[in-house]
Automatic annotation (TrEMBL):
<dbReference type="InterPro" id="IPR002941">
    <property type="entry name" value="DNA_methylase_N4/N6"/>
</dbReference>
<comment type="similarity">
    <text>Belongs to the N(4)/N(6)-methyltransferase family.</text>
</comment>
<feature type="domain" description="DNA methylase N-4/N-6">
    <location>
        <begin position="111"/>
        <end position="446"/>
    </location>
</feature>
<protein>
    <submittedName>
        <fullName>Adenine-specific DNA-methyltransferase</fullName>
    </submittedName>
</protein>
<keyword id="KW-0489">Methyltransferase</keyword>
<dbReference type="GO" id="GO:0003677">
    <property type="term" value="F:DNA binding"/>
</dbReference>
<dbReference type="InterPro" id="IPR002295">
    <property type="entry name" value="N4/N6-MTase_EcoPI_Mod-like"/>
</dbReference>
<keyword id="KW-0949">S-adenosyl-L-methionine</keyword>
<dbReference type="GO" id="GO:0032259">
    <property type="term" value="P:methylation"/>
</dbReference>
<dbReference type="GO" id="GO:0008170">
    <property type="term" value="F:N-methyltransferase activity"/>
</dbReference>
<dbReference type="InterPro" id="IPR029063">
    <property type="entry name" value="SAM-dependent_MTases_sf"/>
</dbReference>
<dbReference type="InterPro" id="IPR002052">
    <property type="entry name" value="DNA_methylase_N6_adenine_CS"/>
</dbReference>
<keyword id="KW-0680">Restriction system</keyword>
<dbReference type="Pfam" id="PF01555">
    <property type="entry name" value="N6_N4_Mtase"/>
</dbReference>
<keyword id="KW-0808">Transferase</keyword>
<dbReference type="GO" id="GO:0009307">
    <property type="term" value="P:DNA restriction-modification system"/>
</dbReference>
Amino acid sequence: MEKLDGKSLDITQENIKKLKQLFPEVVTEGKIDFDKLKLILGEEIETAKEKYEFTWHGKAQALKLAQTPSTGTLRPDKASSKNWDTTKNLYIEGDNLEVLKLLQKSYFGKVKMIYIDPPYNTGNDFVYKDDFRDSIKNYKEVTEQVTKSNTESNGRYHTDWLNMMYPRLKLARNLLAENGAIFVSIDENEFANLKSLLNEVFGEDNFLTALSIKQRHEDRILKGDKDFHEVVEYCLIYRKSSSYKQFKKKKDNSSIEEYVYSITELEPPAEVIEMGNKKVEVFTPAQYRLEKLPASKKNLKRISIRGSLKEGNSSGRFYMKYLDGIPDHYGWLYKVPDMGNDRYPYRYFMRPLSEKITNGVYFQGVPLDKADFIEVPYANFIDMVDTFNNVGYEGDVPFRNGKKPIKFLQHLFTLAGLENDKNGIVLDFFSGSASTAHALMDFNLKDNGRRKFIMVQLPELTDEKSEAYKAGYKNICEIGKERIRRAGDKIVEETGKTDLDIGFKVFKLDSSNVKTWDPETANLEQDLFELQDNIKFDRTQEDLLYEILLKIGIPLTIPIEEVKVNEKTIYNVGFGSVLLCLENEIDLDLVYKIIELKPEDFDSKVIFKETGFLNDSVKTNAIQTLKKNGITDVRSV
């Protein structure tokens, strides 16, 4: 019976595996031969002593922090949850660095969209100080005291912020699907550093845009001592890879209201000339009549040839090559055969009416393949002043620290392509008052979507003088959970719909359910579950169950059925994909029940507690009995 690997995902080893797939000859016994790798890459190696590099004090340590496996786990909290048995949503309380590590195996490459609104580092924001040596102990100490802000007088003002953000973004990237994207809100204080950081983590080629959001009126002065009045914030958007599809805005194209022109030829053309192998008929202003009529599919649309249109289509290019700059022929009409895709076998071009007008025009009919909608790019600027002014009223909870409006977040959902993905996962690991969760539930309401959220928030203590504290919320997580509860109830109350997922499972970061192990000691590769009787006395079977699911890479919201046999519990996970029994004094009756639960159409993984069998004889017989019945993947913890 194989011991279960108790470590969270080792990022360094995963990267070595990927490198080995590309260049198998450079990896020997798990080590990289960098000299050989340089030979293979050849001219692509950067050898110059002076080169562009974005760096800061502590960067190497921050990277090491991201690569160090977590020593913690996530413990279920059913009492704080809503609709535990049916919901697919998650609310996780804890340091987001450790939580991101713990989610690596179960959610690697599964998240469609990440949105975060991290501390802006304005001098009043809390910037979490990570501890490489014992992150879980450090987390518990920090959350038991009022957090301190990262003031500008601190000599490591920008450095501390970068050291906090870097490992979290590295880990977050792993969770994104190949067609996913990350959206990061920021103001001008750390805009430059954040963009450089995201360029490094996601790659410059994956930068999509810096969205500018107007969030307050120009005349609303907050502080008069500033050089400029800040009315705009930003949202940097990066894709995971080229698999991401750039989603565009659908614009109504069904209208014919612009098709109002009619051209009547009053006389034969003044001349016929050849232009680009086409016999072009030329009319003077006296030889044709241009009329403006009520809109009709029989009429023409007038299009000015300017800007990108000069080279953007065949008509623009034809005009610029043959007609632009012809002297004197003001208002002359040129009838060019075999152009365009409309009901007419020709296209009319007209020179400017006077020397004061620089742009010519052409007239086209209604396209034969005219679609009711066309796709146009979204602008990288949005005016959300009114929305931000009313954000304080959203959610029915007191939270004055940078709430983001539902309308704004739903605009980001659209940019991320969630309108076309009704089952996508949205992650927010600086979730604050849980605006993202609220916005996503409301977004699902519009199309009966089953999109899921994962909210992660450090349980920062609220200030005793704050409105939130006086209302009974001792930390930010209590605010976020209550907002989700109220928002869900309000949706049901107002719509009457009962088939929407308005619940969430709460998990809390804690030390492992097994006795402490040290990731820096020589026995780092020793399995977390190697010692016998190593389960902590104050932990439940469910605590251990969910730690195991994280370690073997199974989502925390997977369906779990509890099957009772002689007052002992078998956990049937994912309709038989994993069968666990974490009881003591396991006998063969339990083993036979496990065999009954195994599906016929796929293999099951079976997990026992190492010391849980009645005796060694039962343990041996159990393993052999399982193998005879087609269950070969048997593990112990």
